[in-house]
Write a structure and sequence with these properties.
mainly alpha
Length: 118
C-alpha cells in the first residue's frame, strides 16, 4: 500500500478543532460587537454612563435632550485621537489639548434662535 504522508485526525482531535473553531468564532463576534458599539459611541460623543442613565438620546426628534458635546462624527474622532489618527497608537510624550474636565460644546439654542427657524 502506498502512503501519502498525511495522518488522518482521530475523533478526539476533530472534536477539539471543532470546539476551538466555534469558540474562536464566538470570541471574534463578541469583540466585533464591542468594537462597533465603541465606534458608534465615539461618533455620537456619548459615554457609556450617559447611555445607561439616558442623559442624552441618540434619536431625539423633539430636540428635548440634545447632546451638547456632539460636534459631528469627524470632529468627534479628531477630538478623541487629537488630530493624529496614525501616530496616536505610537507612544510619545503628548500633551493633551483638554484638561479632562472641560470639553468643546455646541452653543446652546435659545428661544430667539428657534423663532428665526420658523
Amino acid at each position: 500500500m502506498m502512503s501519502t504522508g498525511i495522518n488522518p485526525l482521530t475523533e478526539g482531535e476533530v472534536s477539539a478543532w471543532m470546539f476551538l473553531t466555534a469558540s474562536s468564532f464566538i470570541l471574534v463576534l463578541s469583540m466585533l460587537g464591542l468594537f462597533l458599539s465603541n465606534l458608534y459611541s465615539i461618533a455620537k460623543n456619548i459615554t457609556r454612563i450617559d447611555l445607561m442613565k439616558g442623559t442624552f438620546k441618540f434619536n431625539d426628534k423633539e430636540g428635548v435632550h440634545p447632546n451638547p458635546f456632539h460636534l459631528g462624527a469627524i470632529t468627534n474622532f479628531a477630538n478623541i485621537f487629537e488630530g493624529e489618527l496614525w501616530t496616536f497608537w505610537w507612544p510619545t510624550a503628548m500633551v493633551p489639548k483638554y484638561d479632562g474636565v472641560k470639553y468643546p460644546m455646541i452653543p446652546p439654542i435659545t428661544d430667539q434662535d428657534k423663532k428665526g427657524l420658523f
